[in-house]
Amino acid sequence: MFPLVKALRSDLANHAKPDKKSQERSSGLKSSVRTAPRPLRKRLAPKDRQRLIADYLAGAMQKELAARYDIGLSSVKTILREAGARKYMART
Q: How large is the angle between the packed helices 46-57 and 73-83, nearest 10 degrees?
């Protein structure tokens, strides 16, 4: 066999085997399996909920509140809907 082909095969064989250091590093990583999300009542304290509602009524946007309180936009909407908080009066 040609010397260059032997060298390439040797290199490929070495790259295909993970070294001990990479195995040790990867053993400490978390798995990619998702766990169930924590309930909203555990993610946000009642005082924070009241503050979020007050901020919204004072003019803050829902996106801003989601970022500020580190929760999802849908969670902000759920809190506001459950509280009946509306910025604008409905037309009659």
A: 90
Whether the CB-CB separation of 73 and 52 falls below 8 Å is answered with no
Phi/psi-derived region of residue 69, left when phi > 0, alpha when psi is between -120 and 50, beta in every other case: alpha
pTM, two decimals, is 0.55
Place of tokens 């996106």: 63
pLDDT digits (tens, 9 = 90+) for 19-69: 565 555 555 555 566 677 777 777 788 999 999 999 999 999 999 999 999
How is 26-84 classified by DSSP, letter by letter? Answer: HHTSPPSPPPPPPPHHHHS-HHHHHHHHHHHHTT--HHHHHHHHT--HHHHHHHHHHHT
Here the contacts of 73-78 (C-beta below 8 Å, separation 24 or greater) are 75/40, 75/43, 75/44, 76/52, 78/40
